Amino acid sequence: MTHLPFIVSAYALGILVPVAFAVSAMVRFRSARRRLAAIDARPRR
């Protein structure tokens, strides 16, 4: 029996979970900026 599948899955989760959180944060940030721009008429610098 080899431990390789468990090691690979642990590394995959260690990479994929933070990447998923980062992508989610970017999407939410862009959405928030669009919503703010829609309600705030001040020009952006």
Description:
The chain has one helix and no strands. With 45 residues, the protein is mainly alpha-helical. It has one domain (1-45). The mean pLDDT is 93.
Q: Averaging pLDDT over every residue, what do you get? A: 93
What is the tally of helical segments? 1
Q: How many E-type strands?
A: 0
Largest sheet: none
Uncertain runs: none
Query: Ends: how far apart?
Result: 61 Å
> From the structure provided, what is the oligomeric state, counting identical versus distinct chains?
single chain
Question: How would the global form be characterised?
Answer: rod-shaped
Strand content: under 5%
Global structural class: mainly alpha
What's the helical proportion of residues?
over 70%
Q: Estimate nothing, just give the exact number of structural domains.
A: 1
Succession of helices and strands:
H
- Over the alpha carbons, how many angstroms does the gyration radius reach? 19 Å
